[in-house]
Amino acid sequence: MTPVVGVLGLQGAVEPHCRALKECGAEPRIVRKPEEIAACDALIIPGGESTTMGILMERLGLRQALLDHVHAGKPTFGTCAGMILMAKEIVGSDQPRLGVMDVRVVRNSFGRQVDSFEADIPVPSLGEPPFHAVFIRAPHIESVGPEVEVLATLDDRIVLAQQGPLLAAAFHPELTEDRRIHNYFLELLNK
Ligand code: GLN
Q1: What per-residue confidence (pLDDT) applies to 114?
Q2: Is the distance from the beta carbon of residue 143 to the nearest atom of ligand 1 less than 6 Å?
Q3: What share of the chain is helix, strand, coil (3-state, %, to 5)?
Q4: What is the mean predicted confidence (pLDDT) over 145-151?
Q5: What is the pLDDT of residue 92?
Q6: The domain that contains 28 carries what CATH number?
Q7: Cα 1 to averaged position of ligand 1 atoms, centre (Å)
Q8: pLDDT at 39
């Protein structure tokens, strides 16, 4: 059966995730309503602006549906702003969030002068070659709880992490052609 993977369509980099999912053999579905979220096997929370996405999440009454999805043990992947929304702790901010992943994140943490950059980062669980990662006003994970596995770092900053069926990336894997991270995420459906 082809898995249905929702991409939260409030704002941000939605379409590139849909393309990536299709290429990996999943059925992407842009979701904006509680019942649409409930119908998904897995969910991606894309990059964008985490404060805006958090406000829209509350205004549209999506918090409970998103929490239900996570608490059902269904795979959930947050990229960049999506990672911020999943984090329990956001340094210096009380913005709305789901707070489901035991990580402490720092927003816009790679300096104002270089808002965006690309880097080849080794990801041992993906093997060779390193993953070419696109960072856009990116956050990083400063520290993780005991249940969280660090999958990749860049200059001692955690940029890819997993907690069971929850995956979080500080960068945008949907903006390059390398599908290894989306495939890795989809494999969580079989675990
Ligand atoms: N800087 C954004 C934020 O803090 C995240 C940027 C992104 O998702 N590419 O929400």
Answers
A1: 64
A2: no
A3: 30, 30, 40
A4: 98
A5: 97
A6: 3.40.50.880
A7: 34
A8: 98
Cβ pair 121, 133 in contact under 8 A: yes
User: Is this structure's pTM higher than 0.85?
Assistant: yes
> CB of 86 closer than 6 A to ligand 1?
no
Distance 184 CA to ligand 1 centre (A): 23
**Ligand 1 pocket check: which of 53, 77, 108, 116 to mutate, most ligand atoms within 8 Å of Cβ?**
108
- In 3D, which of 90, 77, 2, 92 has the Cα closest to residue 50? 90
Tell me the residue range of the domain where 25 lies.
4-190
- pLDDT tens digits for 65-98? 999 999 999 999 999 999 999 999 999 999 999 9
Name the residues annotated as catalytic. Answer: 80, 172, 174
Q: Which atom of ligand 1 is nearest to the CA of 80?
A: 8
**With a 6 A CB cut-off, is 79 part of the ligand 1 pocket?**
no
User: Which tokens sit at 127?
Assistant: 């093997």
The mean of the pLDDT values for the chain is: 96
Tell me the chain's radius of gyration from C-alpha atoms. 15
Per the structure, the count of domains in the chain is 1
